Amino acid sequence: MSGDPAAERYGSAPGSFRDELRFARISARRVWGSYWLVPSLYVLGALMLSVVLVRWDQNDPIELTQSISASSASTALSALGSGMLTFTGFVTSVVLMLVQFGSSQFSPRFVARFRRSRTLMYALSTFSATFLFALVSTTQVGRGSADFVPTRTLIAALLLTLLSILMFLVLINSTSNGLRVARVVQAVDRLARDVFDTTYPSNASDADAATATAESLRDRTPVQTIYVGPVGRVVVAFDQKGLSHLAQRHGALIELVPAIGDHVRSGGPLLHIYGSHELSEHRLRRYVALGDERTLDDDPAFAFRLLVDVASKALSPAVNDPTTAVQCLDRIEDLLRYAAAKQLSAGVVTDAHGSARLVYRTPTWDDLVELALDEIRAFGASQYQVARRMRALLDDLITDVPENRRPALQRQRDLLLDAVTTAIPQGQRADAVVPDRQGIGMARTGPAAITSGGVTAVHPAGP
Q1: How far apart are the first and last CA of the chain?
Q2: Residue 334 CB contacts under 8 Å (≥ 6 apart), including other chains
Q3: What is this structure's pTM?
Q4: Residues 179/117, Cβ–Cβ less than 8 Å
Q5: Which of 96, 160, 232, 268 has CB atoms 3.0–4.6 Å from 130's, for a disulfide?
Q6: What would the pLDDT profile of 128-146 be if each residue is shown by its tens digit?
Q7: How many Å apart are CA 22 and CA 295, to the nearest integer?
Q8: What residue segments make up the domains of the chain, in order of their start?
Q9: Which residues pair with 233 in a beta bridge?
Q10: Residue range 53-80, pLDDT digits in tens
Q11: How far is Cα 19 from Cα 292, in angstroms, rounded to an integer?
C-alpha cells in the first residue's frame, strides 16, 4: 500500500492531481470569466477606498499647495466622474464593434474567446472603479459645511485616472492584435496541444486497454444512468481523476456516454454506472461541466473546427481570401502532425491496480483528418493557393507520420486530385497540383512529375 496519501487518493498515474486541479481551474474560470464578479470586486474596492481616504483627509488633512480649495477639489472629482462615465461608454462601444467585426471575419465560435478576454474585463472594471471612486468622493467632500482639502483622495483619483489611460492603451493593443488571423490561429494551436495531451492515452498499452474496455461494455447493463435535465446541454469538460477516484472507492466503472462537444438532448443519457450499487448523483454531476456551446477545455476536435471555420469563411465568395485559408492549413498541418503521435483510441482512466474506472469517447485519426480537410477541400479546390498548399501538406504528412496513419491521408490526396480535376479546366490544371507550402510562391525546386487521376504537373528544376 502506498505511503503517500495523495498518491493513494488520486492514483499513481503521472499528472493525476494536476488533471483534477485543471478541471477545478476550468470551473473557476467559468466563474471569473463572468462580467459581474470581477467588476463587482473592483467597484466594492473603489467604494471602500473612497470612504477611507476622505475620512482620513478630514481627520488628518495635509496641504501640498495653497491653490487647491475644497470647492475646486469637489469640482475636479465631479468632472472626473462624469468624464469617466462617458469614456467607459465610448470604449465599450468600440470594443463591441471590434468583436462584431472579428466574429464576422473569423467565425461565431470565436465570440466566446473575445468575450473571455481578461484585458477587456479588467479594463472595464478599472474604468467603472474610477467613476465610482470620483462619484462617492464628490458626495463626501461636498456634503454639509465640509471645508477640508481631500489631498490624498485627489492623489488617488489622479492615479486611478492614469491607470485607466494605461488600461485603455493595453486594451486597444490587445484587441487589435487579437483580431489578427495569425495571432488567432496560433492561440488555437497552442491550446489544442494541451488538450491532446490530457485527452488521449499516453502509451499503447493504455490505448489497448481503452479499446478492450469500451467493447466489453456493449454486453453489460448499467446499474445507474445519469440523465441531462429538461434542457439539452453541450458537454464542455469533465474531471477525469475525480470520476475515476469516485469509481475506485465504490468498485465501479463509469462511462461518459456522449463525447466531449456533443449536444445531449433534453433527458438524454450522460453517465452510465457499472458496478454493484448506485453512486451519489450529486457528486457525479459535479464532475461534468455542461454549457451552451463547445469550448477547447477538453475537446480536441473543436480546435480543428475553429480553424476550418476560419478557412471556410475566407473561401466564401463574399470574402475570397485564400491566403487566410493557407494560414489555417499551416496550423492544421501542425496539429495533425502532433495528433499522429498520440494513441487515438477510446479514452480510459485506470487505478493503481490497472482496473478501468472511467471510459470516454474520443475522435479517431480518421475523424480528425476528415474534419480538418474535407470542407476546406470542397470550398477551395478551385483556388490555386489552397490546392497547392493542401497537396504539400498531404505529401509531407504521408512521408512523416507512422504507417498506420497514411491510408487516411492518401485517400485525402486522391480526393483532392479529383476535386481539382472537376473544378479547374484541363489546360490550367497542372499548376494547381504542384506542392507549395506557401500556396503560390515557393513550389518545390527540382524535377517533380506528379501523375494521378489524369492530372500531370511538371515543375522544372532551377529558377
Answers
A1: 69
A2: 189
A3: 0.72
A4: no
A5: 160
A6: 899 999 888 888 876 545 5
A7: 15
A8: 23-179
A9: 264
A10: 888 888 887 776 666 777 777 788 888 8
A11: 23
